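Request: Show me your protein:
***
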Amino acid sequence: MVFNPNFHSFETEQIATNPLLKYLQHQPPEVLARVAKSASPEIKQIISQNVQGLVGMLPSENFDVQITTNRENLAGLLASAMMTGYFLHQMEQRMKLEETLADCGSLNKDPDSKSEK
């Protein structure tokens, strides 16, 4: 799913006062698609479980679950899922960086001594 900045009719005042929205509206669709595809399957799974936890999970084979909400609450849920995604993506990058640094540290160790070079 890719963010579509023209999906809702944002008011001119919102666009003028929200630099991020203005920035997003000026991005080519290819950039937005590439960013959207960059989420790993692990991040997608965590977000899915998080949203299911927020909405509530009943087994679909036993229940015909329907959820009714208003626009503001749905927007809040989507914003929460997006923020969770951004947070998880940053933490995933941090984890990979720490792993890379740990690998580099092990390469710098002298095999004949316990100290690093």
About this structure: The mean pLDDT is 77. Residues 40-54+67-107 form one domain. Residues 106 and 114 are 11 Å apart (CA to CA). The chain has five helices and no strands.
